[in-house]
Amino acid sequence: MTATALPALPVSRLLLWRHGRTEWNAEGRFQGQLDPPLDQLGRSQAVRAAAQLVTAGLSAEDTVVVSSDLSRAATTATALTDLLGVPLLVDPRLREHGMGSWEGLTRDEVAARHPGQYADWRAGRAVRGRGGEEPAHVAERALAALADLPPARTAVVVTHGGTAGRLMERLLGLGSEHRRVLGPLTNCAWSELTTESGHWRLLRHNTSVLPVPGESGALQHGNGAWPSEAQPAADGRSAKTDPAVAGDADAVL
Question: Where are the domains of the chain?
Fold first, then answer.
């Protein structure tokens, strides 16, 4: 699929928010468009992150919240819409990247059964023969969902690791050769983009709340209070070094 010019979006600020953790995330299992629910930690992450987003200045008057129709995203989004008192828009075009025959398998299972495909995936190359979707198609369908939003200052887009990555690359004009320049979103982390002179800019990436002390598996790389204390732009961590994403297959699609 050949990328076309970006459509004019009816919002000037985007918060791309990845869903909370599922049991499959914890197991390193590819979810794709299958629909495992949030686990207990994932539900806690959603509640804490939603409160932080509201503290960051979101208001019912100028915010629209839209979510993938998969339950792990919609449940995460509901934690925010309940606080803001706004309706939740649901759009299947924000679903995760379809992974074809990999869906439901762990990283180790894919590596054993499809070593060539797995090597291409690890290197950020196109993966042939597994079915599912091409990355460019994921970006275009997600972009079309944003173009159909009602006018608002801010859109909170509750989606998935792969879809968020492809959408950011498309908005920032990053070609396939730059895939994975941006680190993966961890569970319940978000990125902020705004328009300036007709171009989208990434202001913050992979922002998240701090973990509850002693909570195993919480957001281990959180930037703290946002936006005043957040670290700007990408935090530079990778799936190889960050324990929060090392085993999370969908985080590095």
Answer: 13-252
The SS3 assignment for 36 reads coil
The second-level CATH assignment, the architecture, of 13-252 is 3-Layer(aba) Sandwich (3.40)
Active site residue 169: no
- pTM, two decimal places: 0.86
pLDDT per position in the chain (253 positions), as tens? Answer: 455 789 999 999 999 999 999 999 999 999 999 999 999 999 999 999 999 999 888 999 999 999 999 999 999 999 999 999 999 999 999 999 999 999 999 999 999 999 999 999 888 888 999 999 999 999 999 999 999 999 999 999 999 999 999 999 999 999 877 777 888 999 999 999 999 988 999 999 999 986 655 454 444 333 333 333 333 333 333 444 455 565 788 777 7
- φ/ψ (deg, to 5) at 65: -120, 125
d(CA 133, CA 11): 27
Set 96, 133, 169, 192: catalytic member: 96
